[in-house]
Amino acid sequence: MDIIKCVEKAIIKHNLIQNGDRVLVALSGGSDSITLLFTLNSLKDKLGITLGACHVNHMLRDSADRDMQFCNEVCKRLGIEFHILKKDIKTESKKHGKSEELYAREVRYNFFKSLNYDKIATAHNKNDNAETILHNFMRGSSLQGLSGIPYKRGNIVRPLLDITKQEINTFCKEMGIDFVLDETNLKPIYTRNKIRLNLIPEIEENFNPNFINTVTSNSVMVQEDCEYLDNIAKSSYTDEILVDDVSKYPASILRRMIELHYKKSANSDKNLSGLYIYNIIDLLKSNETGKQIDLPNYYSAYISYGKLIIEKKTKKLEFEYKIIPNVPLCITEIGKEILLKEDKNGKIFLDTTDNLIIRNKRNGDIFYPTKMSGKKKLSDFFTDKKIPKKEREQIPLLLSNSKIVSVIGYRNDRNFENGSGKQYKIIVKEI
User: Fold this and answer.
1) Secondary structure in 3-state letters for 71-101
2) How many CB atoms sit inside 10 A of residue 378's CB?
3) What is the pTM assigned to this prediction?
4) Is the dihedral of CA 385, 389, 390, 394 positive or negative?
5) Which of 29-33, 94-98, 347-351 has the highest mean pLDDT?
């Protein structure tokens, strides 16, 4: 195989790189990334690109500094601009409560983005694609996960996806290109390593010797089907998911609409696993107000008046302040200034000796709303008013001697609209 021609063909076919682009190669020093560097360097004049490279030293191995130095020397010899980041992944991952593998990936991609190149080229090959498909399948991925690694996502491009690991190693040997070996890749200590070292060889030996090519060929068909369904979902999605959508759309489209809604709400480009999506569908079917589903990265999903809400979980808001008549009270938690002003036309009657408090709702709150008979649970009042769950904690209450005088902005308690005390009105301003 002529790898340089194969890379050029992939770049043209999938529109990975344009003339004038500044392209950054993610360089580990292994055979894959070294092959990517050399092929792009051979093609840079033909493609009209400027080439750079970067290396992240994770400080996880004794040989990490050796690899960093090797990459530096290769780039110096080729005249390619080189960028280095050295970070103690083991220590930092513990601080952030993340696995070393996940945190290292985040560090790498944040570093790539910080360098402000037009395209970031990574050395994922055909074997990596097969490993990813198997990994996603075992995790219960959606159809999108089974379509494998895309040639392009945003400004991340992968020109080696049509080339196997064996072809890469043969290329390096024939061209006399040196590379370093990451010894951790030979140890079954990570899931991906176990797939690479144990599972795929077992499949090739006992089931399908051409497994890598078979599974990646199948992934192309899956990707084409996935793109078709994704386009239908995008045209159907209107920035919200309704309970009625469960019966309105086929399951394959509804799942994708939920995925789009999650990405929009969480400002994320990561997919939800199938388990989360099916839990959300069950939630939509039940239309159960108050029920909440935990999602990745501290997000949650719940139903509010027929709509699916996905938002960042926050600590329960509680505030309580003493208020003095005719003295403005600033409540920073809700960004409001409240003034209990003495006014002969005011509708609230209060005794000046009352213990006056401004706070938000508490469990068990009740009051006697004007224009209604009997008492009412505050929670039921909010439900009748169709006030979204998140907004309820933001509504201030005026209390006198522990009794609700007013649900400010909504309704007064009728017991305080008559009396012998002084008359007041409530003035609310934004701060």
Assistant:
1) HHHHHHHHCCEEEEEECCHHHHHHHCCCCHH
2) 20
3) 0.65
4) positive
5) 29-33
Task: Please give the Cα distance from 357 to 128 (Å, whole number).
Answer: 63
Give helix 251-266 / helix 274-286 axis angle, nearest 10°. Answer: 100
Task: Pinpoint the alpha helices (H) of 79-179.
Answer: 89-95, 100-114, 126-138, 143-146, 165-175
Could you give the CA distance from residue 259 to residue 273 in angstroms, rounded to a whole number?
A: 9
Helix (H, G, I), strand (E, B) or coil at 121: strand
Residue with tokens 């309820």: 392
| CA dist 189 → 133, 148, 192, 391 (Å) | 19, 23, 9, 47
Tell which residue, 51, 8, 21, 5, has the closest CA to residue 159. Answer: 8
Give per-residue pLDDT as tens, 142-199. Answer: 777 788 899 999 999 999 999 999 999 999 999 999 999 876 666 676 778 888 889 9
Mean pLDDT of the chain: 91
Describe the strand order of the beta sheet including 307-312 as a list of residue ranges. 292-295, 299-304, 307-312
CB atoms within 10 A of CB 305: 14
Each residue's pLDDT tens digit, 357-384: 999 999 999 999 998 889 999 999 998 9
- Measure the CA–CA gap between 126 and 135, rounded to whole angstroms: 14
Query: Rounded CA gap, 220 and 132, in Å?
Result: 14
- In DSSP notation, 278-299 reads HHHHHHHHHT-TT-EEEEGGGE
